User: Fold these one by one.
Assistant:
Number 1:
Amino acid sequence: MNRVYNFSAGPSMLPLEVLEKAASELVCYGESGMSVMEMSHRSPDYEAIINDAEAMLRKLMNIPDNYKVLFLQGGASTQFAAVPLNLIGRTGKADYVVSGQFSGKAYKEAQKMGYDVKCIATTKEDNFDHIPTVTKDMVRPDAAYVHVCFNNTIYGTKYGYIPDTGDVPLVADMSSCIISEPVDVSKFGVIYAGAQKNMAPAGLTLVIVREDLLDYADPKMPTMLEWKTMAENGSMYNTPPCYAIYMAKLVYEWILGMGGLDVMKEKNVKKAKVLYDYLDSQSYYVAPVKPDSRSLMNVTFVTGDADLDKKFASEAAKAGLKNLKGHRSVGGMRASIYNAMPYEGVVALVEFMKKFAAENPKA
Ligand SMILES: *Cc1c(COP(=O)(O)O)cnc(C)c1O
């Protein structure tokens, strides 16, 4: 059976080379005589895997030495609670920017705990069709942190700038844009991401945290959510998501092998351009996102007719272009074109869009 072009928002495509490498080592890893799935996480073989994964990620993202890298479980959604629990102790209050559904959930989670949280900017009234402008004067100077979602997976928007929050640490959910392009880690206090969009299979959550931010946890917080405990134990306070970390290592290796995040970005820009250029050149499909906020990873568009949208997704699937239906809360179409999506997949999508438009004239 042939592999399809899978435009799923997550879990999503993994690079074919990575899957093939994993398959070749699936039953017996190196000289160990066993699968990575069967290894003790305390064994020398596994220690080498997790240490390599961290070293490769540090190299890839150019992570400064005063940041800890944590490989955790629970998904990005668990970090919605872990972020306030770990950081609120700095000052007792926190600021949030709500630019879509996930940042809204993060905001609500912090509110639920009864903390003093404030939404300092939102684009809700514009259906989240662009990224809000966040300036230093909007941030409460005594906030423990400012939380943003850097790429809004559902709406297809991305920050084109890093907000200047002064001395207040910036915390970013980068689940759907991590390792898609270079980012200056030193501008952030914390970066976190669920791995299943652009890094690995589901089950792994990455946290990159500046060391000086490890000392503010609520003493009553659950141990499993405490970054400091995880940092002191090299992400091995308990059993880490061993196999997903191994897969992430293979993905990091794949990107390093092609030249790192500058090269990755070049490829991603080239792919997204094919799609956006076509969207801008015609009127059958509409791209709702404002051009300055467009995501490189998730591209949303609509025909303006819900029945046609439905037909589009189902006929595209038959043509080997899977999972183009938009998120259930917004409808329309969404093409997630993460690192693993080849250029050819995007070209095939645009060819299909042209054909569909020609064959399905609007009334
Ligand atoms: C998918 C996603 C989440 C939720 O991730 P889980 O790992 O399923 O909890 C949170 N934030 C963003 C930006 C996402 O894309």
Number 2:
Amino acid sequence: MNRNLLICLAITIGIFSSAMAQQPLEKPSGRVLLTISGAIDNTNVDDKAKFDRAMLLKLGIHTVRTTTSWTDGVCEFEGVLASDIMDAVGAHGTIVTATALNDYVVDIPITDFKKYGVLFALKMDGKELTTRDKGPIWPIYPRDDFPELQNRAADKKWIYLLYKMEIK
Ligand SMILES: Nc1nc2c(c(=O)[nH]1)N[C@H]1C(S)=C(S)[C@@H](COP(=O)(O)O)O[C@H]1N2
Ligand SMILES: [Mo]
């Protein structure tokens, strides 16, 4: 009897921890801000991972203070770490092909995200970003801390109006 109970418990824990390892994504209930496809392990709508604002915020909110090529002085950006999003979807590629609402497309090395602590900003100076001010998601590089980011070529990766990414 006790032995059966133990076996039951072991099986339950086994099933539970394998489900945890897969980290299944909940389904978005609000407006989808970001859709990720390609080389990912965790999906929630067909073969894609879709995030609404609440799902993004659950990944943990971070702040980056930096100048940008578009704004005056130092701005405070609030959002989620791109690397946390990559972990959440189980990305295992090298290149992120990012697409904006204005059809601009740029390839970003996935290693940028951890190397620079790239923030997917949802707010600037306390105000939610909208499509009128480069949102709803604007990838922010902490450019003030890295001289190699302080040029036009690096600015190409600041894809404002971001809404879609394919991991390759
Ligand atoms: N959504 C979007 N993001 C974009 C671009 C664009 O056209 N659309 N241009 C990129 C390029 S090529 C550069 S150099 C910088 C600055 O572009 P801008 O002068 O058009 O703002 O933003 C980058 N991010
Ligand atoms: Mo550019």
